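Checklist before submission:
- one chain only
- standard amino acids only
- sequence pasted in full

Submission:
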Amino acid sequence: MSNAKKLIEVENLYKKYTAKGNYAIEDISLYGNEGEIIGILGHNGAGKSTTIKCMTGIHLYDKGLVKICGYNIAEEDILAKSNFGYVTDEFTLFERMTGFEYINFLADVYNVSEEDRKARIEEFNKVFALGEALYTLISSYSHGMKQKISIMGALIHQPKVFILDEPMVGLDPYTANQLKNFIKEYAKRGNVVMFSSHNLDVASKLCNRVYIIDQGKILETIDMQQFNKTKKDFEKYFLSITQREARA
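Returned file contents:
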């Protein structure tokens, strides 16, 4: 992937929530190339969600640089945001809409043509198998169904960058497997997928590269293809570097 284009660029990112407080994240630098799946790993409270919310423009950051497909999110926010799809860990949806209405609403926001949205909705429904539930109210959906409709809405404009915050939490094995397969296929199309997680098994098998965050700082960047050749236990390795202070 040496000639691959950088679709995500984050450099020396800092964020405080209060003026006198400590940095929630400090000197975070990472990137994502076309065709890659990237993981941001850490314990609860490590800084994963803060990093993603700064990257997506939800939170302002104090210092640093975030570029999505070459657009600086602090200066060219509309262009940057038009190039990514984002699925939160909270599923903030319009629950009085049907799934179909929700996706069409987002298609309107992103100026997706009638022809394109129809073809994409059909494709998504084949992948995620919502069936007739697509036409029922979101308020009646299960957790997994809300996850699916969130993904469909986030990708209706076919962004080059797909960002997810803790995507596997609460999913049944079948839905989780569907999502993993979809992520792999989406990256193969020349896009980049980045997700935060504390599910080490999924990350080790799915990602090209992972960033391990602890106490708001990146402890290590790991090429998973190279790491897996070592035959080391990834969970043990992760715990060994994130619990050094606890053991000291």
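Reviewer check: The longest strand covers residues 6-16.
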